[in-house]
Task: inverse folding
């Protein structure tokens, strides 16, 4: 098997999904964009392809440790690392046990389904670091981004919302869980890059130790509210529910992360690196990073044009370009978003959004 420039083995007994190439490329760019030299733990390594790519593609990976609960996976990761001339440590066992014995600056969490039970485990690797990095993938999208309230409450302690901006809500619920767990370890969080793609959600987060940093993160948690009848939406420290007996009833999701989901300067570094590399999905990655840049300093939701046309009964679907132009001409920001091709983000008030659809 070949992924980008890495040749490696993928026997049937060990998990490998070629469709995650884009995720691994973006994550490897994030590793390369970090200014620090880092000791990396690929904690759910399977074939080892993530860790191998991080180390082969970036000069700042000082050391690499592979963990997997399956002996077969560790055997394959070892062979693949050797084939790629990498020196590394290999540990068979659950992250929940091994976390007490190992130290790292960067931990990769890529389990089957929810990362929730492993976030606390991953934070144990950072004792006694002042700065650290956590890279998390979630494939329980049906829970985070669907109407499955009970499992979301159980795994993330938050209420989801199955509406037109559900993918951003799901991502922000996952980041909230990381912020909460990190705060218990006296870490504040700064998401460097976060995205939703295909069947998964991904974030790479910088952690900074300090009670004030942790407290600041906790103050970035809140709710988004949404009225399915009017399309109106809002966000704040507390859910806005409107008058449940009248026509203004609002649904809500949260608590979730209301802070930034990307760091602008970090995105610029990732883009620069991408332009220096020859990834097979180079153009798509550049396009995605440009969309991430659009999302900085915007409200924590987006507007789905088709859904709003249905609610506003416009009878036709206006061109995205025209809508964005009208909002910008009115003095607001209006940008496309990576979350959905038929949606945009804007800092305009809802009345103005409705006006430009007319
Ligand atoms: C989705 S795969 C990882 C894919 C891999 N990171 C990649 O990019 O190809 C999940 C892996 O986590 C391993 N795993 C499951 N539970 C684990 C645990 N508690 N601790 C460590 N590894 C675990 C599984 O054996 C499996 O190999």
Result:
């Amino acid at each position: 098997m070949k992924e980008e420039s890495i040749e490696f083995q993928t026997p049937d007994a060990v998990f490998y999904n070629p469709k995650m190439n884009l995720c691994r490329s973006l994550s490897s760019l994030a590793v390369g964009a970090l200014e620090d030299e880092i000791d990396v733990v690929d904690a759910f390594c399977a074939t080892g392809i993530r860790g191998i790519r991080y180390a082969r593609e970036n000069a700042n990976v000082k050391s690499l440790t592979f963990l997997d609960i399956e002996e077969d996976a560790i055997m394959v990761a070892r062979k693949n690392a050797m084939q790629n001339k990498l020196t590394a440590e290999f540990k068979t066992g659950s992250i929940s046990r091994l976390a007490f014995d190992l130290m790292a600056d960067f931990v990769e969490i890529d389990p089957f389904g929810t990362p929730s039970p492993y976030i606390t485990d991953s934070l144990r690797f950072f004792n006694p670091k002042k700065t650290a990095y956590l890279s998390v993938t979630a494939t329980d999208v049906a829970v985070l981004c669907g109407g499955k309230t009970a499992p979301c409450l159980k795994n993330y302690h938050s209420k989801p919302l199955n509406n037109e901006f559900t993918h951003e809500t799901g991502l922000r619920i996952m980041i909230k869980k990381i912020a909460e767990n990190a705060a218990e370890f006296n870490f504040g969080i700064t998401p460097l890059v976060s995205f939703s793609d295909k069947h998964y959600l991904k974030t790479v987060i910088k952690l900074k130790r300090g009670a004030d940093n942790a407290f600041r993160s906790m103050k970035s948690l809140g709710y988004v509210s949404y009225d399915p009848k009017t399309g109106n939406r809002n966000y704040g420290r507390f859910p806005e529910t409107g008058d449940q007996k009248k026509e203004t009833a609002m649904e809500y999701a949260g608590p979730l992360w209301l802070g930034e989901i990307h760091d602008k300067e970090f995105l610029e570094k990732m883009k620069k690196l991408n332009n220096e590399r020859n990834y097979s999905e180079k153009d798509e990655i550049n396009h995605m990073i440009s969309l991430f840049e659009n999302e900085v300093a915007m409200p924590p939701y987006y507007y789905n044009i088709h859904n709003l046309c249905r609610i506003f009964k416009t009878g036709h679907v206006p061109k995205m370009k025209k809508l964005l132009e009208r909002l910008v001409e009115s003095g607001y920001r209006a940008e496309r978003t990576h979350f959905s091709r038929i949606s945009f983000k804007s800092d305009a008030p809802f009345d103005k959004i409705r006006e430009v659809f007319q």
User: Anything to note?
Assistant: Residues 2-294 form a domain with the Rossmann fold fold (CATH 3.40.50.150). Residues 15-16, 20, 24, 43-47, 49-50, 67-70, 73, 94-96, 110-112 surround S-adenosylmethionine (CB under 6 Å).
